[in-house]
Amino acid sequence: MPSDLPLRCAACAARDMALCDGLDETALAALHQIGRRRRLRAGQAFGWFGDRASSCANLISGVLKVSRVEADGGIQIVGLLYPGDFVGTLFADRSADTIAALSEADLCVYPRRALEEMLVRHPAAGRLLLRRTLATLGEVRRWMPMLARARADAQVAALLLDMARRCAADGEDMFRLPLSRGAMAEALGLVVETVSRHMTAFQQDGLIALSGLRGVRLIDRTRLAIIAG
């Protein structure tokens, strides 16, 4: 890494997952020049549907929800973004979705036009971003089948498995929930009491073990997957 980059870049928890991973020193320095750190409170929006798409970002920590306006005017959460995911859309003047924080979130934000120009100057970075964007899109597409589940216990089980896949270290069953019970309920369109009831039931049935406010260990992934459908 170039010596003139700040320590926050070297210590970034998402660097190995985000756009920065794989960039050469020249491209990384160019990316750093246009980037700035931004924090979002839970509930605060990164961008609103239909607004001018002025910024993109790498998500460093926290979880964001991607919402879409349906034909009947209703709001539907269509995906979750986790650390390392790319936020926003390039080469589009208007935001196609509303993106807001489900938890406190930390982002590295880039002006969209400046990022587009940087990618033209550094084609390898553009190819890397394309792969990253397609990967993020693939993750978002996992969300719709999860919401389509009719039973609340299936939704909660599916969300637990999804968070474990994204947040647990490779080969580990223990991880820290990135969302509170309330945020999980918001993401699934449930009430917090329903989420808490099913989490407690999963623990009593020996499927998971809870530790403190956010610690969870998946004991029986197979049975959780059966419940999730």
UniProtKB/TrEMBL annotation:
<dbReference type="InterPro" id="IPR012318">
    <property type="entry name" value="HTH_CRP"/>
</dbReference>
<dbReference type="InterPro" id="IPR000595">
    <property type="entry name" value="cNMP-bd_dom"/>
</dbReference>
<keyword id="KW-0238">DNA-binding</keyword>
<dbReference type="GO" id="GO:0003677">
    <property type="term" value="F:DNA binding"/>
</dbReference>
<dbReference type="InterPro" id="IPR050397">
    <property type="entry name" value="Env_Response_Regulators"/>
</dbReference>
<dbReference type="Pfam" id="PF13545">
    <property type="entry name" value="HTH_Crp_2"/>
</dbReference>
<dbReference type="GO" id="GO:0003700">
    <property type="term" value="F:DNA-binding transcription factor activity"/>
</dbReference>
<feature type="domain" description="HTH crp-type">
    <location>
        <begin position="150"/>
        <end position="222"/>
    </location>
</feature>
<dbReference type="Pfam" id="PF00027">
    <property type="entry name" value="cNMP_binding"/>
</dbReference>
<dbReference type="GO" id="GO:0005829">
    <property type="term" value="C:cytosol"/>
</dbReference>
<dbReference type="InterPro" id="IPR036388">
    <property type="entry name" value="WH-like_DNA-bd_sf"/>
</dbReference>
<dbReference type="InterPro" id="IPR014710">
    <property type="entry name" value="RmlC-like_jellyroll"/>
</dbReference>
<dbReference type="InterPro" id="IPR018490">
    <property type="entry name" value="cNMP-bd_dom_sf"/>
</dbReference>
<protein>
    <recommendedName>
        <fullName>HTH crp-type domain-containing protein</fullName>
    </recommendedName>
</protein>
<keyword id="KW-0804">Transcription</keyword>
<dbReference type="InterPro" id="IPR036390">
    <property type="entry name" value="WH_DNA-bd_sf"/>
</dbReference>
<keyword id="KW-0805">Transcription regulation</keyword>
